[in-house]
Amino acid sequence: MSSTAHATAAEPASPLLEIRGVEKRFSLSGDFLEQLKFKGGKLVREQKHVHAINGVDLDIQRGEALCVVGESGCGKSTVARTVMGLLHPSAGEIRYDGERIDDLSHKALMPYRRRMQMIFQNPYASLNPRMTIQQTLEEPIRLHHPDWSTQRVRDQVAEVMASVGIAADWGARYGHEFSGGQRQRIAIARALAVDPEFIVADEPISALDVSIQAQVLNLLMEAQQQRNLTYLFITHDLAVVEHFGTRVAVMYLGRVCEVAPTATLFARPRHPYTQALMSAIPRLEDDRPQHIRLQGEVPTPVNLPSGCVFHGRCPHANARCRSEIPQLIAADDGSQVACHAVEEGRID
Amino acid sequence: MTTTNSSMAAAPVASRWSRFRGSYLLYSFKRDPVAQLSLLVFIVLVGVAVLAPWLAPMDPYDLAQIDILASELPPFWIDGSDPAYVMGTDAQGRDLLSTILYGARVSLIIGFGAVALQALLGVSFGLLAGYLGGRVDAFLMRLADIQLSFSTLMVAIVVGALVKAAFGGATYSDYAVPLLVLIIGLAEWPQYARTVRASVLAERSKEYVDAARVMGFSSRRIMFRHILPNTLSPIFVISTVQVANAIISEAALSFLGLGMPETHPSLGSLIKSGFDYIQSGSWWITLIPGAMLVILVLVINLLGDWLRDVLNPRLYKG
Amino acid sequence: MALLDVTNLDVRFALRRGDVQALRDVCFSLERGERLGIVGESGAGKSVAAFSLLNLIAKPGYIAGGSIHFDGQELTAMSDRGLRHVRGHRMSMIFQDPMMTLNPVLTIGEQMVECLKAHRRISTKEARAISLRKLEQVQIPSPSARLDQYPHELSGGMRQRVIIAIALLLDPDIIIADEPTTALDVTIQAEIMALLLELCEKHNVGLILITHDLGVVSQVTQRMLVMYAGRVIEQGPTREIINDPQHPYTQGLINALPQMATPGARLNQIPGSMPSLDNLPSGCAFHPRCGFVARADGSTRHACTDEVPDFVTSGNCRVACHMVAEMLDRERIPAEEIR
C-alpha cells in the first residue's frame, strides 16, 4: 500500500473511508415470544426485517465531499449513522484510514471519535437544552484532551466559535435562545471543536430557511478549505449536491445505483432513477423538459423486490432486471452505474 | 408590562435570577390565584409542622405533661372547653393542637422520605431501562409490573406483621418511621420508573444524544449529564402527586393500625384514635386532624396540577 | 372586482408580552381561476395569511383590521355559520401533513361521504358516487378499493392525493394549499404539483399556494407575493419577479439558491436572520440585513431605518422598498428633462 504522501488528486492511493458490502436490517418482530406464530397448525418462529441498506459499497477520498442523495427511506441516513458507529452493520465492514472500525470496542474507537464528527439535521434537537453553548463546546474538548488546561480549552472554544461566526458572548446562553441557523452554526462548532478530519453531515440544511441554507453551506465550504476536511454529505436536495459535492452517490431502496463525479452526473445522468430524480427538481426556469413520470411508488423495504430494486418503476425493465441484481460497473468517465440496461447498452 | 421586556433586555447574559423573573413559571404563578393560595397554605402547614417543638403549647410525647383528667375536652368554641387547650384534647388528655402539629410533622417526614426513596429507585431504574433498552428494559419493567400488582397496603400489612412478629411491638414503634418510608417507597417506585422511562425514550431519540454518543461519551455520562436533566420536568410533576399519595398511604396504614403507634401519632393514627370516640360525641379528635390531612393533600395536589399545566410543553405557549 | 380581495389585513396575536402583529397591511387579490403563490421563509407570516382568509387563526390570534372581500361578501364580518359554509363550499384547504387532516379511525370513503352530507342534502349512495369520481380525478390507482381503506394503509403521496380529492369534493372556487408537498419526496412532489396544476386549470379553480420553495412557485403560479416579517414586500407576475426581482430581499432569496452560483463557489448569502415579530427593526424590517442600506447615502439610509416603505409600482410589480422608489424617481427626472 502506498502512503498518502504520494497520493495525487487524480489517483488517490487509499481512500479515507471504505464502506464494503454494508447491510443493515432492523427487526420488526419484537422479542422472541412475539416472533412465534401459528402457521398451518405448527408453531414457527417468524422474523420480519426492514432492509434499510443492502450491500452498499462506497469509497470516500481524502479532501472530497461525497454527497449521498436519495428519497426518504432509501437508507442514506442509515449509511451515515452506520459509518459513525451509531448503528452496527448487520453485515459488511467499514474501514477508516485502512483500519476496520465497525467492530471496535467503545474504548478502541475513541481515537476515531476525535477524527470523525457528525452534524445532524434538526438544529432544534441537536443541542442539549440544559447546557449553555460554552458547556456544549467545552465538553467534547475536555473528553478528548483531558490533559489540556482550562485556559487552553477556552482558547480552543473561542477559536472555533470565531471560525463559525458565533459572537463570544453567546457562550453563556442556551440553545433555545437562538434561531435555527444560529443553532446549526453552534452544532458545526461542536463538531469542529475537536479538530476532526472527516465530517458526516446528515441533511444539515434541510430544516433551515433558504437564506440561512446559503449561510450554512458557505460555512461548511469555508471549513473544508481551511481545515482540509473530508465530507460525507447526506441530502435529498440535488441543487445542493450540484453546488457542494465532489462526487455523488445516488441511493434507491438501500442500494447505490449510481456514483459519479458531480459534473459528470449532472451533465449526463445514466441510471433511469437518477434521470427521473433530476427531472423532478422544480427549477426556476420556465422552459424545462417535462419531468419523467415514474410508475407507482417506492416499495417497502420489508419485502424487497427481486433483482434490481428499481425494476417495478423502471420504464426499461426486462426479465433480467426482475431476476438479477445489477452491480456497480465503472465507465470511462469515472462514473459507476448499477443498471443492466446501461450495461447492455439498451439505454444511453 | 414590566416582566415582558426583562427577558428581552437581559438577553445577552441573563443571570439565574433574571431568567427566573422572566420565566413562564413565575408568570403563570402570578396569574393563578389557586396556585398562590395553595403555595401559601402549603408553606404555612409545612412551617408549623417543622416548627412544632417551638410552636406547640405542649409536647405530646412527654408523658409528664399529659393530664389524663383533662381528656376529651372540646375545642374552644364549645361549652365545657378549657382555654389552655384551644383545639381540645384527645382521649389520653393530650392537647389536640400540639398533637396535630407533631402529627403533621411525622406525616410530612414519611411523605417526603418515601418519595425520595421512590424517586431514587424509580429514576435510576427508569433511566437504565429507557437508555439501555433490550433485556435490561424488559427485566426492569416486568419487575415494575410485578411490584404494581401488589398494592401498597398488602406489602405494608405483610412487612409490618413480619417485623412486629419478629422483633416485637416495642421495636416496631421505635423504627416505625423508617419502616414506613421503606414500605411506601418500595411500593410506589414503578410510578417514577415508568414516567422517567417514557421521557428517556423520548429524549434518547433526539439528536443531541446522538451527538454525545458520536463524541464518545460513556453511557453513564450521557444518561446522567445529558438525559437526566431533560427529564426533570415530569419528575417534578409526579413528585407532587406522589408526596400527596404517600401521605395518604401513610394515613391509611396508620388508620388500620399498621402505621405510626399512638404514642407517636401521625395524622392517620390520630384520626384512628379519635374514631372510637366519635360515637360518644368527641368528634373533634377525628375531624380536626382529618381536616388537616385533607387540606394538606389538597394543596399539594393543586400545586401539582398547576405545575403540570405549566411544564407541559404542549400547553406551553410563550 | 376580483373574486377575492384582501385589503390592509392586520392580524395580531395576544400574548403575555402584549400584542404581536403577525400581519401588517397585507393586500392582494385573486381572480377566478388564477394561481397565486405566497412565498416567504418561516416566520414571514405566509401561513397566517392563508389561515386568516378562512378565519381559522387559532387563539390567541385575531383579525385586528382590514377586509377580506370574497365574491361580494365581507368575510371578516361574517357569522361562524356563514364562514363554515364558505369554508366547505367555496374555499378549501390542503395542509402540509395529510395525517393531520385525515381522521385515522375512519375510512377514506366515510370521511368523504360525511363531508359531502354535511354540506349537501344527498343520499349516502350519491355521496359515494361523487367521492369515487373525485378519487378518479386525482388519478389514484384502483379508486373504488381506496374508499374502504384507512388513511394509514396509503402511502404519503397517495394520502396527499386523497386530500386533494377531498378539497375538490364540493367544487370550491379557491383551494388554499399550505406547503402541500413539503413533506413529500421530490419525485412524488413533482407528480402532486403537476396534478394540482392540471385540476385547477381544468375546473377553473383558483389556487393560493403557500410555499418556501421558489422553484415550485415559478412552475405553478401566475402571480406571486413575497412576504417578510409579516408584510408583503413585493408582488407581481411570477415570471417577472423570478427573472427580475426588485426588492433586495427577493433578490437575495433568489441569488442564495445553489443553482444560481457556479458549483463550488461561495453562495450569495443574506446575512443575519428574519427578526422575530415581537421585536421588529424600525423602518423597513429588512434594513439590518439589506446590502443596499450600507451603501446608501444619507437621506435614503435614513428613510430605510426610520420609515416603513410604501408600495411603489415598477412595471407590473409592486415593491415596498425605499431604494426602488428612489431609483424610479431618478429615472423619471431625466424623462421630464428630455421633454
TrEMBL record, chain A:
Family annotation (Pfam families)? ABC_tran, oligo_HPY
Indicate yes or no for the key word GTP-binding: no
- Keywords, ordered alphabetically: ATP-binding, Nucleotide-binding, Transport
InterPro entries linked to this entry: AAA+_ATPase, ABC_transp_ATP-bind, ABC_transporter-like_ATP-bd, ABC_transporter-like_CS, Oligopep_ABC_C, P-loop_NTPase
Q: Which residue range or ranges hold the ABC transporter domain?
A: 38-278
Q: Which GO terms describe its biological process?
A: peptide transport; transmembrane transport
Q: Name one GO molecular function term.
A: ATP binding
Q: Does the keyword Transferase apply?
A: no
- Judging by the UniProt lineage, the source's domain of life is Bacteria
Q: Which PANTHER family match?
A: D,D-DIPEPTIDE TRANSPORT ATP-BINDING PROTEIN DDPF-RELATED, TRANSPORT ATP-BINDING PROTEIN
Q: Which family does this protein fall into?
A: Belongs to the ABC transporter superfamily.
Descriptive protein name: ATP-binding cassette domain-containing protein
Record organism = Halomonas urmiana
Automatic annotation (TrEMBL), chain B:
Topological type in the membrane: Multi-pass membrane protein
List the InterPro entries: BP-dependent_transpt_permease, MetI-like, MetI-like_sf, OppC_N
Where the record annotates domain ABC transmembrane type-1, the positions are: 104-304
Signal peptide extent: none
- Pfam families, sorted: BPD_transp_1, OppC_N
Write out the similarity annotation.
Belongs to the binding-protein-dependent transport system permease family.
Keyword list (alphabetical) reads: Cell membrane, Membrane, Transmembrane, Transmembrane helix, Transport
The protein's name is ABC transporter permease
Q: Where in the cell is it found?
A: Cell membrane
**Top-rank taxon, per record:** Bacteria
Bilayer-crossing residues are 37-56, 106-134, 146-166, 172-189, 227-248, 283-304
Q: Which PROSITE patterns does this one have? A: ABC_TM1 (PS50928)
| A GO term from the CC aspect | plasma membrane
Give the GO biological process terms.
transmembrane transport
UniProtKB/TrEMBL annotation, chain C:
A single Gene Ontology MF term assigned here is: ATP binding
* Signal sequence, start to end: none
Where exactly are the transmembrane stretches of this chain?
none
The record ties this protein, via PROSITE patterns, to: ABC_TRANSPORTER_1, ABC_TRANSPORTER_2
- Which major enzyme category is it? translocase
Q: Which UniProt keywords apply?
A: ATP-binding, Cell membrane, Membrane, Nucleotide-binding, Transport
Give GO BP annotations, semicolon-separated.
peptide transport; transmembrane transport
Note whether Membrane occurs among the keywords: yes
Entry EC no(s): 7.4.2.9
**SMART domains named among the record's database cross-references:** AAA (SM00382)
Q: What is its main location?
A: membrane
Where located? Cell inner membrane
Kindly give the membrane topology term recorded for this protein: Peripheral membrane protein
Swiss-Prot/TrEMBL catalytic activity: a dipeptide(out) + ATP + H2O = a dipeptide(in) + ADP + phosphate + H(+)
Q: Which residue ranges does the record assign to the ABC transporter domain?
A: 6-254
Recorded superkingdom:
Bacteria
**Could you name the Gene Ontology cellular component terms for this entry?**
plasma membrane
Q: Which family does it belong to?
A: Belongs to the ABC transporter superfamily.
Name this protein carries in UniProt: ABC-type dipeptide transporter
Species this chain originates from: Halomonas urmiana
